[in-house]
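Discrete fold record:
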Amino acid sequence: MTAMGTDLGREATGDQRAVRFYPPAYDIRVETVSMPVIVDPDDAVIKVTLAGLCGSDLHAYRGHEEVDVVRTCGHEFIGEVVALGSSFNPNASERPLLYSTLKIGDRVVSPFTVSCGECHFCRLGFSSRCVFSALFGTPDLPGGQAQFVRVPKAGGTLFKVENITSVLHSGLSDSSLLLLADILPTGVFAALQALQHPKITSLLCGKQYPHHGFVPRYVQLETTPNLSFDDRNFTFAVVGLGPVGICALVSLLDMLGDVPAINYRVVAIDPVASRREKVKSVLAVLTPIATPPRAVVADIEEGKQLVKDWTDDVGCNAVLEVVGNNSALLLAYEIVRPFGVISSVGVHQAPPVPFTGRDVYKKNVSFDFGRCPVRAMLPIAAALLLKRQDVFGGVGEPASLIDRIASFNDAVAIYEVFDKGGCGKILFDPWKN
């Protein structure tokens, strides 16, 4: 037994407070439950200092998921290591680095899913589809809205705060770093899926499709057709302006601003007035004054009209769908142009998608769906986190993504308000009275 890797958690006893969901819907309770313990050599137990409330937590809350057991909520958390399984020791080799370096007392951020760091998918960067993948806050894995949480495959899952801040050469608050658990990498992922799609990269590179990327070596062209400046006018939309939507919008604008010799405009769409006002405040600190403005906030009908006006009714090059329901997906399909791209990171449920194969065939629309691989997105997300502390650093300011840090005592009321769109990003301090 070493100070680095111990099985202290096996013998640990005691109780903790946790936010719990009772099916079928709209039933949140703060209860006293048993503390987690080490059950596998690859486990870690974390003392949670902050936990997030995410829009995807509302799917179970609203009864949209087929859940029939009580569970501890939450999949975003930051905290301190208090117990480690026996896999953690200085001599651990041929395994992810944290198995040889993580120590009790280290501060860590956890992605919202477990990843081993060793399987085929993890090696490719597709960590959200790890063969051991598990989502925190589900019946199979208690979540982070608790005072303590067990992390399986912790050496491949966790990030040491020290490692993140040393690369950034800057210290950041826990409330800011918590955004790296899910919503900021997911926003980056939404934007990157669109911008790296071959239908979009041809425009970014200024080369006619398909000659901007892979073509067989036996194809010989005397010249590669270049696109005119007019052909490189981009129109993007972001559908859904909750916390993840703001992260996607900030990510998209930052990435587009790094591409030379293109002209772009973005319409940010949400039916909820308070969310639109929040995004207007974000844009006020985010973007330099331009005529016409690079990004415009709109409700649904205004957004449709703007896309028609800007593109002569052709549609958007790409749409980031950040809601996760069929009305948002149908809107994305409606405003995307032929040969356009829809990047969907909303957590969709059981209903079939709201269009037919014929619909997507006749528009040549490309779809990218699914869960963000947080580990792959972390370097980009961490750099953006530091760069945009005017949005991601504060709490409770008009342009701050985070609205407030609350106690578990307020959890029932906060879920109700959040469900109705009455607040933005909320964090819980499990130790606050």
